[in-house]
Amino acid sequence: MSTRGPRLVLLGKQGAGKGTQATRLADHYKVAHLSTGDLFRDAANFGHELGLEAKSFMDRGELVPDETVVGLVAEHLGIDDRAARGFVLDGFPRTRRQAEELRRILDGRPLDLAIDLDVPTEIVLRRIAGRRVFAQCGALYHVENPPKENWTCDACGGRVVQRDDDTEEAVMRRLELYEVETLPVIQFYRRAATLAHVDGSEETDDVFKQLVETVEAQFDPTKP
171 vs 22, 97, 117, 164, CA distance in Å? Predict the structure, then answer.
């Protein structure tokens, strides 16, 4: 019998490390990594209608409507060859309606696991509020791991700054919104018996090891 890779959803607050861990999981299982943030940016850069629509909402600081997000995810699940074998969804679903739409999109192919990457608010706040960036080359730093000289970028010498949306006040607003939006998603997957929790506050490699152990304990590659 042929085997496949897992179909996973990775949940977690901003700053929980979802992007890093989703990339590692996708590489480990040789499946697609679909990040809604990347999908929005790529689609907008290519002039895709849904991508431009998503960008217009983000530029105004508004949430992208469910139908726009669902449309992009559904399209990529259909055209990404690796997604046919399995996927790791990062940043989707964010609402109960999106979780229901994902079940419809999968059309009888059950989600294997939704993993809540659990990190206390005070830790993600420290991670994000301490983040510094040089926008020109994209280099990232942190107050606990600064560039070598006087907050100038090691790569290109430009001034490294804190982004407006990385201030403590801005981060707290996003975390509060996340709690309101995502609690129903967690409840949705708990009722479907596909929810697992992993402590995301440990070192990156330790978190990845926990994630793989969690997937291996519950994923059956022989099931269609």
Answer: 22, 24, 18, 10
